């Protein structure tokens, strides 16, 4: 984000956008959007499941692979 | 290299050198804690810029044209291309826990200098190297675990020994971490109430995310954290109210609560308790670490601790026995070198990495960040009055059972002074009943942090900050206990599955219950033994935990060195070989002393013998108060001594087996490994945090196709 041409306000908005992007990515909140994008791009005929169904599947898979946490 | 780059790096080197100079040369006057931070940051920057780059390019030979498992096996489930900055966050959150906070606090008994040197030098040459190299080798093997790599690359003997070692070490780790929480919460209605409230808060978050707002993690976390802060504040009201007695629990009661909690958390679905608790604890962890760094910069505290104490040399310190070598290197594990990280670096991270060149940022870089946390913890422990430090960290038995007058006299016996009134005032300032004998590191760190925060942010509020810090530590220790119990359960089920098939199915209910009970029972046993040990559980168990963690590091470094040699890179084998030699020397020396030393404070079996002799003579030796206490000491010491010997033996077996393979490889020049074959990468991504000009051009040339998985690009 070089942002040389941006005004101070633009820069601030860009920074806020960056933080929002980072938080959505790291919390996994953007996973569904990515799934929808991926499904419509590569498999146009695939059925896109609802967010509720998608998140449920994602959560249930974590049962077999819980987050690793160290000391 | 441009002039600007040269000037910047000369400045960084100069700053680091001046800071080291101040730390080394200024004596007899207290120095500012900022010098430690400057020495650390300057050294990290140089090491990352030069040494990590050398390892990535010369030693490992990262190849930006080679597709990573995330690219080749992309399935949107476990193999998923993840932006390097996001993966850095995930990896850091996974490796950073209570270890780098607790170890340095205990090691402050030796003074601030030994710990500082080990944390900085250790991370640069050992810890960060281990993490990066393990990550690289696992990435080249589709994300194989450390145990699998030991079996495939060394042999079945080494493989089985590694598997057993990992499981046993995890049990001790969980017990010690749980012990830290018990010691922090015992007889503290404020702390106990706040932590107890995290269970309903996490359950609420779990149901909210599942039923009401699927996938809205940020919104849920904001609600959760607000409730958490409310829980900390209301803890103060509860402690003043009629409910105080309900939440004033003894250590024994807390042990049973934790065991029951650990079991339930292990059998419940992840979404209900574990996942939301993980969101909370990760948020609190990162937030508090940033807050602490800012607090240190603003408050600029002076170090009250000596640079090197007498205990470092004569080994008679009350917090843990043994002298500087080898015990400083055992006590500070996480933050300098932590074997446990090898499990994370060979877990999910290698399956998510975009580019081989990113192992430097994620493996080496994240460990540098953890080391920074360790330095901050060492500072927090070193700015509090030494009299108070020993009053909190010496075992209760040594301090005369909790009476302030007796404690003051015992501390005077160590050569430090604090009056009973001052002890009482320190406890009153954080609204605790007493601070005497509050071992485990967490309360000490909380006192240090509350001093830093209340100075930095004004307005006093020491009691709030103290309980905020306790909450922060207990929260993520409990998350580790949850996650660790579940991982242990999976390992056990996997192993039992070889004997009786259904066990291998991780959703087969009887298997879930049996394996959970065994894992919880195992760490619960050590936890209970630690809590009831008259000699002080932390004093006895923490060295065992450190030894276990460092022996795991020895296994990881052995696997890494073996692989370098098998790949025909004998001339670079020193990169992991030297830290391995150092780690093995330190850890086996410590194991040797814990098993064979005649010193009753140090050797587990000498200790057992002394109490056995006294018991035969019908005597009761202090700090034991009854014959039953005597039996307990004898039994615990025998168990601990046997474990120390067992861990060391396992690691010796693995190293001997690896030496055999290495010799074979040296004779042959190289040996085939299980590395997956080269596949050309179709994506372009930067290696470091900030893309270089060349990388920007490459990404621009590759166009939109390369970054389709990313929402926002760098340029």
Verbal overview:
The complex is a heterodimer of chains A (71) and B (715). With 71 residues, chain A is mainly alpha-helical. Helix content of chain A is 62%, strand content 0%. Chain A contains 3 helices and no strands. The longest helix of chain A is centred in the first third of the chain and has 20 residues, at 8-27. The N and C termini of chain A lie far apart (35 Å). The mean pLDDT of chain A is 84. By secondary structure, chain B is an all-alpha fold. Helix content of chain B is 69%, strand content 0%. Chain B has 27 helices and no strands. Chain B has helices spanning 3-25, 34-60, 69-72, 84-95, 99-107, 112-139, 146-153, 156-185, 189-212, 217-240, 251-267, 274-299, 310-314, 324-331, 340-345, 359-382, 386-393, 404-414, 420-429, 442-456, 462-496, 509-532, 537-566, 574-596, 604-616, 627-668, 693-702. In chain B, helix 23 (537-566) runs parallel beside helix 26 and helix 25 (604-616) packs antiparallel against helix 26. Residues 705-715 of chain B have low confidence and may be disordered. Chains A and B meet through helix 1, helix 2 and helix 3 of A and helix 4, helix 10, helix 12, helix 15 and helix 21 of B.
User: Helices and strands of chain A, in N-to-C order?
Assistant: HHH
Largest interface summary: A-B, 39 and 57 residues
Oligomer: heterodimer
Q: Given the C-alpha coordinates, what overall shape of chain A results?
A: flat
User: Considering DSSP H and I runs of 4 or more, what fraction of the residues of chain A is helical?
Assistant: 55-70%
Radius of gyration of chain A: 17 Å
Order of helices and strands of chain B: HHHHHHHHHHHHHHHHHHHHHHHHHHH
The whole-number mean of residue pLDDT values of chain B reads 93
Could you tell me the strand content of chain A as a percent range? under 5%
- Which value, in Å, is the CA radius of gyration of chain B? 25 Å
Helix tally of chain B equals 27
Residue ranges of chain A: pLDDT <50 for 5 or more in a row?
A: none
């Amino acid at each position: 984000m070089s942002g040389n041409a941006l005004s101070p306000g633009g820069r601030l908005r860009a920074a806020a956008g960056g933080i929002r992007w980072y938080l959505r990515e790291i919390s996994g909140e953007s996973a569904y959007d990515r799934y929808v994008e991926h499904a419509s791009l590569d498999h146009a005929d695939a059925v896109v499941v609802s967010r509720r169904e998608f998140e449920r599947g994602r959560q249930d898979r974590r049962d077999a692979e819980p987050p690793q946490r160290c000391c | 290299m441009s002039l600007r780059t040269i000037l910047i790096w000369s400045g960084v080197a100069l700053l680091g050198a001046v800071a080291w100079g101040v730390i080394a040369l200024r004596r007899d006057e207290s120095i500012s804690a900022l010098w430690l931070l400057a020495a650390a940051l300057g050294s990290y920057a140089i090491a990352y810029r030069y040494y990590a780059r050398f390892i990535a390019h010369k030693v490992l030979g990262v190849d930006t044209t080679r597709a990573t498992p995330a690219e080749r096996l992309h399935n949107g489930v476990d193999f998923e291309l993840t932006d390097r900055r996001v993966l850095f966050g995930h990896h850091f959150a996974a490796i950073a826990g209570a270890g780098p906070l607790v170890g340095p606090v205990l090691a402050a008994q030796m003074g601030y200098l030994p710990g500082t040197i080990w944390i900085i030098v250790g991370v640069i040459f050992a810890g960060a190297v281990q993490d990066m190299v393990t990550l690289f080798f696992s990435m080249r093997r589709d994300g194989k675990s450390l145990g699998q790599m030991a079996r495939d690359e060394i042999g079945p003997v080494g493989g089985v020994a590694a598997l057993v070692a990992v499981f046993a070490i995890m049990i001790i780790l969980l017990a010690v971490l749980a012990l830290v929480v018990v010691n922090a919460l015992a007889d503290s209605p404020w702390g106990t109430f706040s932590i107890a409230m995290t269970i309903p808060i996490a359950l609420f978050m779990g149901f909210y995310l599942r039923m009401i707002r699927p996938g809205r993690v940020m919104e849920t976390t904001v609600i959760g954290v607000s409730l958490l802060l409310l829980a900390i504040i209301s803890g103060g009201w509860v402690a003043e109210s009629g409910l105080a007695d309900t939440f004033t629990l003894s250590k024994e009661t807390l042990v049973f609560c934790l065991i029951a909690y650990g079991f339930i958390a292990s059998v419940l679905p992840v979404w209900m308790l574990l996942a939301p608790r993980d969101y909370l604890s990760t948020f609190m962890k990162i937030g508090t670490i940033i807050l602490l760094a800012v607090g240190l910069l603003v408050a600029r505290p002076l170090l009250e601790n000596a640079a090197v104490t007498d205990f470092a040399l004569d080994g008679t310190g009350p917090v843990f026995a043994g002298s500087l070598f080898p015990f400083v290197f055992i006590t500070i594990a996480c933050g300098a070198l932590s074997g446990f990280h090898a499990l994370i670096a060979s877990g999910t991270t290698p399956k998510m990495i975009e580019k081989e060149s990113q192992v430097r940022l994620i493996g080496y870089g994240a460990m540098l960040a953890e080391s920074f946390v360790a330095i901050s913890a060492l500072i927090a422990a070193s700015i509090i009055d030494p009299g108070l430090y020993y009053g909190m960290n010496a075992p209760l038995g040594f301090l005369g059972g909790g009476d302030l007058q007796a404690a003051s006299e015992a501390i005077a016996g160590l050569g430090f002074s604090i009056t009973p009134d001052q002890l009482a005032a320190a406890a009153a300032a954080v609204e605790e009943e007493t601070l005497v004998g509050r071992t485990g590191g967490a309360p000490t760190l909380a006192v240090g942090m509350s001093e830093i925060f209340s100075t930095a942010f004004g307005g006093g509020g020491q009691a709030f900050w103290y309980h905020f810090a306790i909450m922060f530590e207990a929260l993520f220790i409990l998350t580790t206990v949850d996650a660790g119990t579940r991982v242990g359960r999976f390992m056990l089920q996997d192993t039992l599955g070889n004997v009786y098939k259904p066990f291998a199915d991780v959703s087969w209910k009887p298997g879930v219950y049996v394996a959970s009970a065994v894992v919880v029972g195992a760490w619960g046993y050590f936890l209970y033994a630690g809590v009831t040990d008259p000699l002080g559980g932390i004093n006895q168990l923490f060295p065992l935990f450190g030894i276990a963690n460092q022996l795991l590091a020895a296994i990881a470094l052995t696997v890494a060195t073996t692989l370098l040699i098998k790949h025909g890179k004998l001339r670079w084998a020193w990169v992991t070989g030297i830290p391995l030699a150092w780690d093995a020397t330190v850890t086996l020396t410590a194991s040797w002393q814990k098993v064979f030393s005649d010193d009753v404070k140090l050797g587990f079996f000498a200790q057992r013998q002394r109490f056995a002799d006294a018991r035969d003579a019908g005597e009761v030796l202090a700090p034991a108060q009854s014959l039953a206490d005597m039996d307990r000491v004898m039994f615990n010491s025998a168990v601990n001594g046997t474990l120390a010997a067992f861990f060391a033996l396992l690691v010796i077996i693995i190293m001997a087996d690896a030496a055999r393979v290495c010799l074979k490889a040296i004779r042959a020049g190289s040996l085939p490994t299980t590395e997956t074959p080269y596949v050309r990468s179709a994506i372009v991504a930067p290696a470091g945090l900030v893309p270089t000009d060349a990388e920007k051009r490459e990404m621009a040339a590759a166009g939109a196709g390369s970054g389709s998985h990313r929402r926002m690009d760098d340029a």
